[in-house]
Amino acid sequence: MLDGAEELAARYAEEQDDYRSIMVKALADRLAEAFAEHAHEHARREWYAPTETLSAGGLIEERYRGIRPAFGYPACPDHSEKRKLFTLLRAEEAGMSLTETCAMLPASSVSGIFIHHPQSKYFSVGRIGRDQAEDYAVRKELPLSEVERWLSPNLGYEPG
After folding, report:
1. What's domain 5-125's superfamily in CATH?
2. Confidence of residue 3 (pLDDT cuts 50, 70, 90)
3. For a tag on the chain, would you pick the N or C end, based on fewer CB atoms within 10 A?
4. Which of 2, 4, 24, 1 has its CA nearest to residue 12?
């Protein structure tokens, strides 16, 4: 969350003011998402779409060039890849960390990658077959059981 938002939400919770606690968390979430959208717009203008002009509707409909997928979402279901991103970006220096299950802390944190290719589109990874999971485990140099744990919602078979 924003600096101090967790503390403020906790204070409201201690005062049994659940509404304000929830609203602080919701506002922090929305601000984090808004900043991610702003950063994506900045990257597009600076790196590959300097003349882009989109209406609010155009932004909502994602008519811009490129995509901003995030680990743990349909196009990149493996949350554990956040570890590499956090290392690369030195996210801990910015006050962010990952839990054992790769949830981001503060809770109102966002991460993702910018892909600028003009033909890039959002997509969902379908059901993963055992052969695909085995290949992925080899490439990640991890036991199959660990890969299956991270990808369990996307598996097209019963591990074991």
Report:
1. Vitamin B12-dependent methionine synthase, activation domain (3.10.196.10)
2. low
3. C
4. 24
The domain limits of the chain are 5-125
d(CA 58, CA 114): 18
Q: Which of 131, 25, 132 is nearest to 77 (CA)?
A: 132
Helices 130-140, 144-151: inter-axial angle, 10-degree rounding: 110
> What number of CA atoms fall less than 13 Å from residue 158's CA on the CB side?
0
CB atoms within 10 A of CB 144: 14
Task: Tell me the two tokens of residue 74.
Answer: 């349909």
The pTM of the full predicted model, rounded to 2 decimals, is 0.81
